[in-house]
Amino acid sequence: MTSKFDEIGSLFLKRRKELGLTQQQLGEKVGVTKSEISKIENGRGITFSTINKLSEALDVSAQIELKPTAEVSMNMIHYIVMSMGLFARQFKLTKKEACNYLSRFKGLEFLIDSYEVEHQLSMQDCVDDMAAICLKNGGALS
């Protein structure tokens, strides 16, 4: 499962490339080594201080969002497990592969965030919606 730090690192990598900077050049701007920039772009060694320094150097703003943790009921857990099983079957994946794929491409996050609506739809609609979200986020199953 990817962490939010991986996502932050990827965003910094993308912005650095947009600006045509090498890791060495960005490191010099913020006072760290090229290897430290590499670690950050891979989601390691990220602190609030690092985020602020890189944001300033890359001419972007960083925002932090705090939101309450969704309460997870047993019904939601059963629904998610069943949905993942159907997703795995439809795309000929093991349950572990389906779980990893849905986690990586935000299908599970979508299902949890949209549970109140999704659980009222057919299971096939749910699987189709997760597949569409994953595709939108870089997944390649069809």
Please specify the SSE layout and strand pairing.
Layout: H1 4-18, H2 23-30, H3 34-41, H4 48-57, H5 74-90, H6 95-104, H7 107-113, H8 115-118, H9 123-136
Protein name: DUF3791 domain-containing protein
GO molecular function, one term: DNA binding
InterPro entries: Cro/C1-type_HTH (IPR001387), DUF3791 (IPR024269), Lambda_DNA-bd_dom_sf (IPR010982)
Structural account:
This protein has 142 residues and is mainly alpha-helical. 65% of the residues lie in helices and 0% in strands. The chain has nine helices and no strands. The chain is elongated. It starts with a helix and ends in a 6-residue tail after the last helix. 20% of the residues are buried. InterPro entries: Cro/C1-type_HTH, DUF3791, Lambda_DNA-bd_dom_sf.
How do you describe this structure in short?
The chain has 142 residues and is an all-alpha fold. Helices cover 65% and strands 0% of the residues. This is DUF3791 domain-containing protein.
Poorly predicted parts:
none
Number of strands: 0
- Please, how many helices? 9
Beta-strand residue fraction:
under 5%
Structural category is: mainly alpha
Distance N to C terminus: 21 Å
Mean pLDDT: 89
Tally of distinct domains: 2
How would a crystallographer describe the biggest sheet? none
Fraction of residues in H or I helices = 55-70%
| SSE sequence, one letter per element | HHHHHHHHH
Coarse morphology: elongated
From the alpha-carbon coordinates, what is the Rg to the nearest angstrom?
A: 19 Å
Features of the shown structure:
434 Repressor (Amino-terminal Domain); mainly alpha; 142 residues; elongated; single chain; 65% helix
